[in-house]
Prior knowledge:
- The complex is a heterodimer of chains A (305) and B (269).
- Chain A is α/β, with parallel strands linked by helices.
- Helices cover 28% and strands 29% of the residues of chain A.
- Chain A folds into two domains: 3-157, Rossmann fold, CATH 3.40.50; 179-304, 3-Layer(aba) Sandwich (Rossmann fold).
- In chain A, 55% of the residues are buried.
- By secondary structure, chain B is an alpha/beta fold.
- Chain B has helices at residues 38-54, 69-86, 104-117, 139-147, 201-207, 217-220, 250-264, and strands spanning 5-9, 12-14, 34-36, 58-63, 90-94, 122-128, 150-162, 165-171, 175-182, 185-189, 212-214, 228-235, 243-245.
Amino acid sequence: xxxxxxxxxxxxxxxxxxxxxxxxxxxxxxxxxxxxxxxxxxxxxxxxxxxxxxxxxxxxxxxxxxxxxxxxxxxxxxxxxxxxxxxxxxxxxxxxxxxxxxxxxxxxxxxxxxxxxxxxxxxxxxxxxxxxxxxxxxxxxxxxxxxxxxxxxxxxxxxxxxxxxxxxxxxxxxxxxxxxxxxxxxxxxxxxxxxxxxxxxxxxxxxxxxxxxxxxxxxxxxxxxxxxxxxxxxxxxxxxxxxxxxxxxxxxxxxxxxxxxxxxxxxxxxxxxxxxxxxxxxxxxxxxxxxxxxxxxxxxxxxxx
Amino acid sequence: xxxxxxxxxxxxxxxxxxxxxxxxxxxxxxxxxxxxxxxxxxxxxxxxxxxxxxxxxxxxxxxxxxxxxxxxxxxxxxxxxxxxxxxxxxxxxxxxxxxxxxxxxxxxxxxxxxxxxxxxxxxxxxxxxxxxxxxxxxxxxxxxxxxxxxxxxxxxxxxxxxxxxxxxxxxxxxxxxxxxxxxxxxxxxxxxxxxxxxxxxxxxxxxxxxxxxxxxxxxxxxxxxxxxxxxxxxxxxxxxxxxxxxxxxxxxxxxxxxxxxxxxxxxxx
Lengths: 305, 269
C-alpha cells in the first residue's frame, strides 16, 4: 500500500484527514503545533505518529522534507491553513511537486490523482488531475471523521527551523466563539457607521440565539470585531441555517464564506447591491430603521412564549 | 555588494466578479476578462516605500496564466502598466500559449529561471499573499525555494530593513509573529500592510516610456511537461430565492420577512 503523509495541525482536524487518507493508502501522521502538544488525542488512530519538536512552519518544512526523502509517499494530505500552506509550498518548490489547496474531493487513479477544488472565490469548481507525488490540502467537513482503532507508535522528529529567526509571538485578540458551529449568524458590513452601532447586530444575534461575524473591513481593517469573527475567503467559511447579512454589499470575497448557508437574508439600503441576487430574502431599507423594528418584533415574540 | 533591488510579482488574474457560464454549465473562461490581482497592489505599494529606503531599481515580473495571448494581451498589458506606473522601472513578461493554462509548478520555475537568466539580484521579491482567482498562496514560497532565498509569508508589516536583514510581522490564524530574515528574501504580503493608492495620471503617462521585455520560454531554455491538467470548470449555481421586499413601510417589511423565515423553519422564536 502506498504511504500517505498526513499533516495534522490540530487534533480536531485529524479525524477527517485520516478518513481521507485511509481510503488512499497507509497513513503516517506528522503531528505539528497543537497536535504535537496534545499527542494523546491523536495516537488513537493506530497509525504511526511523527511528533515535531518545533511549532514553527519553518520547522515543518524541514520535517516534511526529511519524511519525504525517507518514506517516498505518493500523497501528502493536510488542512488548508496558513502554516501548512506556507511550509508545504516551500517544500513543493524544492521538488516541483504539485500542490492544491481547499480540495473538496480526491480520487486516486494510480499514477495520477483527480481532485476538485473551488476557485474564483468558490464560484467555480475546478476538476483537475495531477501526476503523483502530489500535495492536497483539504477543506474541513468534506468527510465524516475516522474511528479511532488502536494505539500508535510515536517517533520524535528533531529538525532545525532554518534561517528565519522568531523574535516575538503575540496571540491575537480572539473572541473564542466558533462561528462555524453557530446555527444563526448575523453578518455586519460597512453599512454600519460606527463600532458602537454593532450593538444592534449583537442584540439581534442574542435574541435569535446566534453569533455575530463580519466582513474583512469590519474585522480585519477597522478591528470592530475580533479577527476570528471575520467571514470570507481569507477568514471563516460558515454554513449556518440562517445568515443575515446587514449592510453588506455582497462582494465575492465575503460571499464565498457564506455560500453554504441554508437561508440568506439581506438588509441593505442600496437596491442595486449584488447581495440581493445572492440572498433568499431581502429588505431594501436603511439598517438603522429596520433593525430596531426587527429587534422589537422578536422581543415581543419572545415574551409571548 | 549590498542588495538594493526589488522584484514585484504581478498576476493578471481572472476577475472573480465576472463569472459567466456556457449553456452547458461550464465556466466561460474565454470571455472572462483578466485584471491585476488585488493583493498585488499592496505588494506594489509596499515596493514604493521600500524603494525609497533601498534606493535600487524595481522590476515587475508577470507570467500569463490564462491564455490565449491573442485575447488576453490587452488585459495583461494593463496589469503590467499599473505596476510600471506605480513603482516598477522595468517589466519582464512571459506569455507563452504552450503553457497556458499554466500551473504553479511551471510559473515558479519560469519566474526563478528568469530572475537568474537576467542576472537580477534583488534584496526582496514581493508578491500578494494569494491571487484572486486560484488563491492557493503557493507561488511566492516555491520561488523562494527554487532560488534558495529566505521566505516569509503573510507579512502584514515591514518593521525594519538594514544590514542585510529584514524584520517583519507575520499574520497567522491565532497569533502574529515578529521575524528576522536574512536577505535576499521572498515576502508575500497581506491586504492589511497598506492602503494602495491608484497611480496618478502623470505616473500612467510615464509608464508607457518604461521598458517591457517580453521573454519567451525558448529564450530561457525552458520546456515543460504539464503536471496538472484542468479537466473541468463548472460554475457553482446556488439559486437563491431572491425575494426582495421593497415595502417602504418598515414595520410591514419586517413582518413579511419574519413570515418568510417562519415558513422556512429557521427561526427559533
